[in-house]
Amino acid sequence: MQKFCIKKLIQNYPSGSLKYEGFAKIDSKVNELIPCGQGIKFYEDGKKKLEENFADWFIVTGTEYYKNGNIKFIRDYNKGRRNYYGPSYFVFGRLFNEKGELWHEM
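Above: the chain sequence. Below: its structure as tokens.
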């Protein structure tokens, strides 16, 4: 039986400002960190750069931001059984310009 515990991950820029904050499960059987829940990357000035939600290593949803704080890209990734090896890919997305206006939807 594998044991998991949740660990908060924090990473900083050399300047000391927050670069990444998120959570991971620690699989004690193989001593590996598996991203889970929400993870947020920040620009050095403290504004959000990227926000992602993980489910057992795989990205489920993500939102990317411009430096001005407006949303750049919102995406949902493939869900369901993982019966392949390779990266996740998004199946739905909205792309916005720097003013925050919808530019393209797929």
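The radius of gyration is 16 Å.
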